[in-house]
Every structure is written in structure tokens, then in C-alpha cells.
């Protein structure tokens, strides 16, 4: 128990040091942060601890609104995700929703290989739906690259799902500027890649999806 408490104390000490360094670097930072939250971006990403949203895009607290879950899933029955989206779009007036997956995702890997992982299996059924949808093509991808291929396909499908939510559709209908994007993060190199499934209106969704899907398939066919 003592070791565990020591580890937690390390976190508290780290926090004190971070707060002091931040205030020293930008005097009044926390006072300003207390008064307003005006992010331009909503990041919907994976809960994986190796993918820290703010750090990857070098943004400070208050500049990025974040929702994370296993395998960056957006489904119409998830009131948690939809509530975050609704608050971000209707109240914070974000201009961009970015669905971000990452290479070698454990949730995607479990969905691909039907790995027994307990309760979370019910959640990654959504990713298995993506696998089933593209199964014939996935079977042509070399096994060493199949997980990452499904990671990218999952981003495309979840970005399309985001476009079809009532939150985004209603925003577009009233003329609010919202652009949905799909990105993937490479654990091996620390780089984000835009998969170009970019939609700024309802009319953009299907063409953007088809073009992005064709690009994924071409990239993996190229080896």
C-alpha cells in the first residue's frame, strides 16, 4: 500500500510542478482559463494512454475539447459521446470534429481476431461491424498490415457516423459551420495523417467517404 501511495504522490508532485511551470511561463494562465473555454476543435479519439490528444497537436488546456473511448467509436446509441458532441457544437461552437484512430489499436486488434477481452467485447462489436463490412477486402491485405488497415477503415466509418448524428445534421441544417475529419496517428513515428474523409455539409459525406475508402485500399494494395 505504501508503494501505491508513493506512486500517487508522484502524480500530485508532478501536477504541482506543471502548474508552477505553466504559470511562470504564462502569468495569469489559470485565471484566464477559469473565465472561458473557447476550443475550435472536438477530438474524438481512442482511450489508449499512448495517444494524448493535446500533446499530439501541441495545444494548451482549453484549446481542444476531447472525448475518448475504446477504439474511437461513434455510435448513435452512445449518449456519452452524443452529449459531448452536442455540448461542443451547440454551446462551445467548435468548428471542427476530428475522429482520430491510431495504428496497432488494441481494441481494433481484438475486433479483428475475435479476442476474448471481457465486457469490452460488447463495445468493440461496433468495430467488428466495420470488419464484416469490409471483410472481403481485408482478407486480401497481408496479415502484418491488417490491423492498421482496419484501424483506418474504422476511422472512416466512425467519421461517417459522426456526420449522420442529429447533432451534426441539425448544425448543418441551420447553417452552422462544422467540418468533420478523420485522422490516424502512427504510434511508430508520432505523426498524424489526414485520411481525407472530410465533410463540411451533408452533401459532402458520401463522396468524401468513397474517395477516402478508395485511397485506403490503394495505399494498402501498394504494399
From TrEMBL:
GO BP:
carbon utilization
The first-level EC class reads lyase
Manner of cofactor binding, per the entry note = Binds 1 zinc ion per subunit.
Q: Keywords for this entry?
A: Lyase, Metal-binding, Zinc
Q: Which positions in this protein are listed as binding Zn(2+)?
A: 46, 48, 102, 105
Q: What is its EC number?
A: 4.2.1.1
- Asked if Metal-binding is a keyword of the record, the answer is yes
- Catalyzed reaction equations: hydrogencarbonate + H(+) = CO2 + H2O
Chain coiled-coil ranges: none
Entry function:
Reversible hydration of carbon dioxide.
Looking up PANTHER family in the UniProt record yields:
CARBONIC ANHYDRASE (PTHR11002:SF76)
Its family remark reads: Belongs to the beta-class carbonic anhydrase family.
Q: What is this protein called?
A: Carbonic anhydrase
Amino acid at each position: 500500500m505504501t508503494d501505491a501511495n508513493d506512486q500517487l504522490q508522484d502524480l500530485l508532485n508532478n501536477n504541482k510542478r506543471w502548474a508552477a511551470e505553466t504559470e511562470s511561463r504564462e502569468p495569469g494562465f489559470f485565471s484566464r482559463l477559469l473565465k472561458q473555454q473557447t476550443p475550435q476543435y472536438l477530438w474524438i479519439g481512442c482511450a489508449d494512454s499512448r495517444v494524448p490528444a493535446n500533446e499530439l497537436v501541441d495545444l494548451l488546456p482549453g484549446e481542444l475539447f476531447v472525448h475518448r473511448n475504446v477504439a474511437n467509436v461513434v455510435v448513435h446509441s452512445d449518449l456519452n459521446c452524443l452529449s459531448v458532441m452536442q455540448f461542443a457544437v451547440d454551446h462551445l461552437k467548435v468548428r471542427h470534429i476530428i475522429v482520430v484512430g491510431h495504428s496497432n489499436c488494441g481494441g481494433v486488434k481484438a475486433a479483428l481476431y475475435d479476442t476474448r477481452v471481457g465486457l469490452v467485447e460488447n463495445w468493440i462489436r461496433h468495430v467488428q461491424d466495420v470488419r464484416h463490412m469490409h471483410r472481403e477486402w481485408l482478407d486480401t491485405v497481408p496479415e502484418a498490415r491488417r490491423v492498421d488497415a482496419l484501424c483506418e477503415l474504422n476511422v472512416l466509418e466512425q467519421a461517417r457516423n459522426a456526420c449522420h448524428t442529429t447533432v451534426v445534421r441539425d448544425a448543418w441544417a441551420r447553417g452552422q459551420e462544422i467540418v468533420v475529419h478523420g485522422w490516424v496517428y502512427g504510434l511508430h513515428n508520432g505523426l498524424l495523417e489526414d485520411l481525407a474523409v472530410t465533410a463540411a455539409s451533408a452533401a459532402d459525406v458520401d463522396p468524401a467517404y468513397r474517395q477516402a475508402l478508395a485511397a485506403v485500399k490503394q495505399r494498402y494494395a501498394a504494399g
